[in-house]
Specification:
This protein has 44 helices and 26 strands. It is α+β, with helices and mostly antiparallel strands and about 1100 residues long. The longest helix is centred in the middle third of the chain and has 32 residues. The two termini are about 20 Å apart.
Length: about 1100
């Protein structure tokens, strides 16, 4: 490796280097102790010194110095870990430079010439390499070479960063380097002649945490399913922990989650990930969460500046963030003052004259005839230019979209009518009226027509007027619309409750759903039109839940409200099929429809599901579970007494999960719950965390005296039921009954009525410092644990599904699953993007709905299966080409449905037959490998099998279900019943089904396979003699059958066989093999599966890594 020339005053300081080769201008030196035949103490000490001191001096074992005759100064110009690498550099110097250096008379010119040449070589080497992207390319190149040398991973394994640290083994620290790559965390240490290194895939990390105890002060603990590793003595532990958590989170979301959690596309390309990108991604996630922007937004510029705030009559310092379609400002203290400017609202961005009072000002004008002034902007010219380019592009897209919309309006009716057919028992007139209600989009909020009667209505009206006046005053001072200043004052107004007349408008403003509505004119109508009349699983679930949504509210006791709710939910399920419909969405959509117009309610639902609560509404509610785990940590941190009483906080999480999924709508009285939704649209998920902590803090004393989970549940439920508002105090008709447990413990009955405004204000005051940045960091770490918990559940389900089908032990089955899964992950680490399995991972939901999620989770293609086949085959096959052929046949046999993929169930049953099956089962498997579909006629070609084609003269033994022929005329239920009957029949006759006969060519292949299995065995001669006897016997039987016993043979045949064919049956081959005891002993000899699985696990990584490295070199 060429190095930037570095001056060395003493060529052999402390005699640490030994000169191997030299001339007048260059020296090749070896580090003392390296390569010596005996372990001398000097060599051990030098190695320990190099590791412990973490020196920037070139501590690789070989180096090249440039020297000038007559001078004591030299320069290190190259180094290497192997003598071959340094010799190549030495040969280049002697061949290209040595003859040219003698012409220089001036020593300075000589040194400058050599330095320039070396720097030119370094520049060429850096070009196109990842080191050029790092802050210190030279040191990173050195670390990259060490990483490649120590761990021998394929070249596609991208090193992201590295840290110097100690790895603890008991109470003994090992000083070394922690290397973090795109798929693995690796550690290497060499101390006093002892080498320690290990590689941990991110997919095996189940937990990351900080620990501080004893000698391990401020350590990072990395927990896998097998071991616990602890690292300390980082120069910057916080940075190391953040990068560890971020890389692990990205890898798990990319590798383990088949549901497709939201992940930036750039992170899917592992070869482009570096430390700088991780920092940018962390900042982007924070900005998206803070301003609740669309997940597709990209962060462009981040600039410190100050904005003129008219309400404070001063400039407020903070940070400006620019994305694809937004300008965002946040004060230095999060939440003090924020500003959101959608570019669709911006008219112009201009530079103003810079003065000492207003340095580098920029004026942003919006359509509401207001302007915002930003000052103290660094790189103002470039910032304004970039923003202007994006603004012009946005205005052009909007104008094109409007032109298209206007042209469509001229040829279509302005009020589309949507047809949606239902089976009803209504009369014709009632049915027509019902159809109109179902398909007419409401133009006003449901609350205007269906107002829920509440006591004290007159008092409510006066209080509403007071609130409206306060908000009008606020609008006049802070602005109105999405670009109004959001300060602590608006937070206090929201806590008091938004007046009903302004609630819909402010929800749209605070969530920025109004920008989506304006930029997608007509979108909702088109979604309603496209979704109406469709029958899917989502629409079935929606129909089931329609009448469960706020059943006590008059708006949803009426067909108008039900029809509006159906349209909103169905349109969203059509817009986002990945989410479709999830429970609790109906409750949320119902509340949105009460205070917003139908189209507005749709875009509010879009904002909640896709911006404000990402990953909440999917099949496994990953986002909600992650936030539950974050909530538990906040309880440990902020409510230690409660955490001490409940060592396992999962009991409280079972209660609080509904708080997060329904935003307290399912547990609070309606009037109080709507106030929580107000806070949610202003503060985001942070408001739910704060309110949840406040509820638990208010009930800590009672919860700490509870004796079981049921009692704790009753305490919280009773408290929440009695949370009221000034307008509608919550007073239950009858007091809640006491459970027997509470009577025994003499707990006081909860009769304390709490005002929701007081509860919200307490949440802000006591837990207001729970910031968005803290939540995002905790989410990153806790998502690791949640995803791994789901992975464990998936494994348990897979083992439960396969266990009845095999006879191997539970431990071996578990190890086989881990091996199978690792092979799949290796292909994702370093495999070809065109791999069948990689393509299958993204399309399984649409193409293979006949299998359960557990069966589809991991499957292997041909290359992956053959890799495991070679590792797990119990018999050593002498010919490598024959092993490859058998692997292809086995894959074709297991992939019987011709999807070119093998599931874990199929793999486990094959492995069980080899190691735990009876003799006849093993012979049956070998027999099937030598007849179609495993064997095909094109195999005479020595090239590898292309695809499992069927023999032209031998039909595949598959019974076609009758349902396929007459399915068109049957109903869905009848087809399902017929399918179940066919499955039962197949299961009954699976073992008893006779096998097709084997012809002479296939039998010869069968014998060749047996000969290859016996080669190298200790009883090789006896086995060869036995198989020769069996072969002769079977040939005689076949010949006899060919000549005169065809009638007896045909009783077993399940297909038409020409009379001229020589055939033999499986039963005849099995009977012949049983006559030879050596053959019986060979196939009945037990083979230890556990040992073979353990050996395969060790070899799996090294074998695939070496193969891929070789392929990369060949390319």
């Amino acid at each position: 490796m060429w190095l930037n020339p570095e001056e060395v005053l003493l060529k052999n300081a402390l005699k640490l280097w030994i000169t191997e080769r030299s001339n007048d201008y260059f020296l090749l030196q070896r580090r003392r102790g390296h390569g010596e035949s005996t372990g001398k103490i000097t060599g051990l000490l030098v190695g320990a010194l190099d590791t412990v001191l973490d020196s920037n001096a070139r501590v690789t074992p070989f180096r090249i110095l440039h020297q000038i005759p007559g001078s004591q100064i030299s320069w290190v110009i190259a180094s290497g870990a192997a003598i071959e690498e340094v010799n190549r550099h030495w040969d280049w110097l002697t061949r290209n430079l040595l003859h040219s250096l003698s012409v220089f008379e001036n020593k300075d010119d000589l040194a400058s010439f050599v330095k320039g040449k070396v720097k030119g070589l370094i520049a060429e080497e850096l070009r196109g390499r990842q080191a050029a992207q790092e802050d210190d390319p030279e040191r990173f190149r050195e670390a990259l070479l060490k990483f490649e040398l120590h761990f021998a991973l394929p070249p596609t394994e991208k090193l992201v960063t590295y840290f110097s640290c100690c790895c603890w083994k008991g109470r003994v620290p090992r000083q070394g380097f922690l290397y973090l790559s795109s798929n693995h965390v690796c550690f290497y240490s060499f101390l006093l002649g002892k080498e320690v290194k290990f590689v941990i895939p991110w997919a095996e990390v189940v937990r990351l945490e900080r620990v501080s105890s004893g000698l391990m002060h401020e350590a990072v603990r990395l927990v896998t399913r097998q071991k616990v590793r602890e690292f300390s003595m980082f120069l910057n532990r916080d940075e190391a922990f953040r990068v560890l958590a971020q890389l692990c989170d990205i890898a798990l979301r990319r590798l383990l989650d088949s549901e497709g959690l939201e992940l930036d596309r750039t992170l899917l390309q592992t070869t482009t990930i570096n430390k700088r990108m991780l920092e940018e991604q962390a900042l982007r996630e924070y900005v998206l969460a803070l301003f609740r922007l669309p997940r597709s937004e990209r962060l462009h510029e981040v600039a410190s500046c100050s904005v003129w705030t008219p309400h404070a009559r001063s400039h407020t310092a903070g940070t400006l963030y620019t994305t694809d379609q937004y300008l965002c400002f946040c004060s230095r203290e999060e939440g003090t003052c924020t500003l959101l400017l959608p570019l669709c609202e911006v008219l112009s961005i201009e530079k103003a004259e810079s003065t000492s009072v207003l340095p580098n000002p920029v004026i942003v004008s919006v359509r509401s005839k207001k302007a915002f002034q930003f000052i103290e902007l660094q790189d103002r010219e470039e910032l304004v230019e970039n923003l202007s380019v994006r603004l012009r592009a946005l205005h052009w897209r909007v104008s094109v979209f409007r032109d298209k919309r206007s042209s469509k309006r001229s040829v279509t009716s302005p009020m589309p009518y949507y047809t949606f057919y239902y089976d009803t028992s209504l009369s014709d007139e009632e049915e027509i009226e019902e159809q109109v209600l179902r398909n007419t989009v409401n133009s006003e909020a449901l609350m205007t027509a269906f107002h829920q009667n509440q006591p004290g209505a007159n008092g409510n009206k006066s209080l509403e007027k007071v609130k409206e006046r306060l908000w009008e005053d606020h609008f006049s001072e802070f602005g109105r619309g999405v670009h109004m200043f959001r300060t602590e004052k608006i937070q206090r107004l929201v806590a008091m409750g938004i007046p009903e007349s302004l609630r819909g408008e402010l929800w749209m403003t605070l969530s920025d759903a109004c920008s989506e509505l304006e930029s997608h004119e007509g979108y909702y109508s088109s979604m309603v039109q496209k979704s109406m009349g469709q029958s899917t699983l989502a629409t079935d679930e929606i129909e089931r839940d329609l009448h469960r949504s706020l059943p006590d509210h008059p708006a949803f006791q009426n067909p108008t409200g039900i029809a509006a709710l159906r349209r909103v939910l169905t349109a969203y399920a059509h817009r986002n099929p990945k989410i479709g419909y999830c429970q609790s969405m109906n409750i949320l959509a119902s509340v949105l429809l009460l205070y917003a117009r139908e189209e507005e309610a749709f875009w509010l639902l879009v904002c909640v599901c896709e911006r404000m609560l990402p990953d909440y509404f999917n099949r496994r509610v990953i986002g909600a579970q992650v936030d539950q785990s974050v909530f538990e940590e906040l309880i440990h941190e902020r409510l230690p007494d409660l955490a001490e009483h409940f060592p396992d906080l999962s009991s409280l999480s079972s209660v609080s999960l509904s708080w997060f999924l329904t935003l307290f709508l399912s547990v609070l009285p309606f009037s109080s719950a709507v106030r929580v939704v107000d806070c949610f649209f202003f503060s985001g998920i942070r408001a739910i965390f704060q309110l949840g902590l406040s509820v638990l803090e208010a009930n800590t004393a009672q919860l700490c005296t509870s004796t079981d989970e049921g009692q704790a549940l009753m305490i919280l439920t009773g408290f929440l039921e009695l949370v009221g508002t000034d307008e509608a105090p919550s007073v239950p008709l009858t007091p809640p009954p006491l459970s027997p447990a509470s009577e025994d413990s003499n707990l006081p009955l909860c009769t304390r009525y709490t005002n929701i405004t007081d509860l919200i204000n307490e949440a802000y005051e006591k837990f207001g410092d729970v910031s968005v940045q803290q939540i995002e960091r905790l989410r990153c770490r806790h998502r690791i644990q949640v995803l791994q918990t789901h992975e464990d559940t998936t494994k348990e389900n897979a083992l439960r599904l396969v266990s009845p089908e095999v006879s191997m032990s539970a431990e071996n089955l578990s190890d086989a699953y881990d091996l199978f899964k690792t092979e799949h992950l290796i292909s994702l680490y370093w495999g070809d993007s065109s791999s069948v399995a990689a393509a299958e991972a993204s399309s399984w939901r649409q193409t293979d709905l006949g299998r359960s999620f557990t069966e589809r989770q991991y499957r292997l293609d041909r290359a992956q299966f053959k890799s495991l086949y070679c590792l797990l085959l119990p018999w050593s096959v002498s010919c490598e080409q024959h092993t490859d052929t058998l692997g292809n046949r086995t894959f074709a046999l297991l992939s019987h449905n011709h999807d070119c993929l093998v599931s874990f169930k199929e793999f486990a049953m094959w492995l069980d037959t080899l190691y735990c099956g009876e003799l006849n089962e093993k012979i049956r498997l070998l027999y099937r490998l030598h007849i179609p579909p495993a064997l095909n006629e094109s195999e005479e070609d020595p090239s590898l099998l292309k695809s499992p084609l069927l023999s032209s003269n031998r039909p595949l033994y598959v019974a076609r279900p009758e349902a396929e022929e007459t399915g068109e005329g049957k109903s869905y239920q009848e087809q399902l019943k017929q399918m179940l009957k066919d499955l039962v029949k197949e299961k009954e006759k699976d073992v008893e089904k006779p096998l097709p006969l084997m012809n002479q060519r296939e039998f010869i292949q069968f014998c060749k396979t047996l000969y290859s299995l016996f080669h190298g065995n200790q009883e090789e001669n006896e086995l060869f003699q036995a198989i020769a006897t069996v072969t002769s016997l079977v040939l005689q039987i076949g010949e006899a059958g060919h000549q005169g016993s065809k009638e007896e043979v045909r009783q077993e045949v399940t297909r038409d066989v020409p009379e001229s064919d020589w055939t033999i049956s499986f039963a005849q081959i099995l009977a012949s093999l049983l006559t030879e005891q050596p053959l019986v002993n060979f196939f009945e000899k037990p083979t230890e599966l556990a040992a073979r699985l353990a050996s395969a696990k060790v070899k799996q990584y090294h074998q695939r890594a070496a193969l891929l490295s070789l392929q990369h070199k060949v390319r």
